[in-house]
Write a structure and sequence with these properties.
Elements: H1 4-30, H2 52-59, E1 66-70, H3 78-84, E2 90-95, H4 98-111, E3 116-120, E4 133-139, H5 148-158, E5 159-170, H6 179-187, E6 192-199, E7 202-208, E8 217-219
Parallel strand pairs: 1-2, 1-4, 2-3, 4-5, 6-8
Antiparallel strand pairs: 5-7, 6-7
Keywords: Methyltransferase, Transferase
GO molecular function: S-adenosylmethionine-dependent methyltransferase activity
Protein name: Methyltransferase type 11
Length: about 220
């Protein structure tokens, strides 16, 4: 039988562990940065709300399109999108960490996705001219960028006049970006909210550059 002293010691240890985790999360949120490559296994877990199929439904990738993924990490969504734009479409996957870029390059080669171009770059200064992409997307990435406003400006800049922007967010990501504030900030840049799928704590949302007068869809 476990003694009361042992139970109290275990409870105290668990409490300290939780507090340490909360402290780490708060420090990470106040100091935005991408998930380190050494912790890459944590971003490969299944994502029950922001699934690959939901991203495909919201992004609506089409064959022959030129798309941009910002912050692919290890390529959780990359292969699915790349296959959706075959045979002549191209997906540019831009990550600030060279280790992630090489990881995606290797993974796409192994999965047989030659239409992916992994590139090292900063979301605050994308290495592309204006009006380059039919669509861009980033999932669990915006909150990790030290200057989110600059990144949103860059995304608007590289989209074609009729382009689409899809952003995915989900708790318990410490850098979670709430929908209402995000919508306001993106619409200030001239893009129009078009759709959302998911819930308040996990969602994909799409903004269209070429829409001015139409009702938006929202699926909870």
């Amino acid at each position: 039988m476990v003694s009361r002293r042992t139970v109290r010691a275990i409870a105290a240890l668990l409490g300290l562990t939780v507090l340490a985790g909360l402290g780490y999360a708060l420090r990470w949120r106040s100091n935005p940065s991408p998930c380190p490559y050494a912790q890459r296994h944590a971003i490969n877990f299944p994502r029950p709300v922001i699934t690959r199929s939901r991203l495909r439904d919201v992004l609506k990738p089409q064959p022959s399109e030129r798309l941009l993924e910002v912050g692919p990490g290890t390529g959780y969504y990359t292969g699915m999108v790349a296959r959706a734009i075959e045979p002549s479409g191209t997906l540019h996957a831009v990550d600030v960490q060279s280790e992630m870029v090489e990881h995606v390059r290797t993974r796409m080669r192994q999965e047989g996705n030659p239409n992916v171009e992994p590139i090292r770059g900063d979301a605050r200064s994308l290495p592309y001219p204006d009006d380059t992409f039919d669509a861009a997307y980033l999932v669990l990435v915006l909150g990790e960028i030290p200057d989110q406003e600059r990144a949103l400006d860059e995304l608007e800049r590289v989209l074609k006049p009729d382009g689409r922007l899809v952003i995915g967010e989900s708790l318990p990501d410490p850098h979670f970006v709430g929908f209402e504030g995000l919508r306001r900030r993106v619409e200030q840049r001239g893009l129009t909210f078009d759709a959302r799928v998911g819930t308040r704590v996990g969602y994909f949302t799409r903004f269209d550059a070429g829409i001015s007068d139409r009702s938006a869809d929202s699926v909870e």
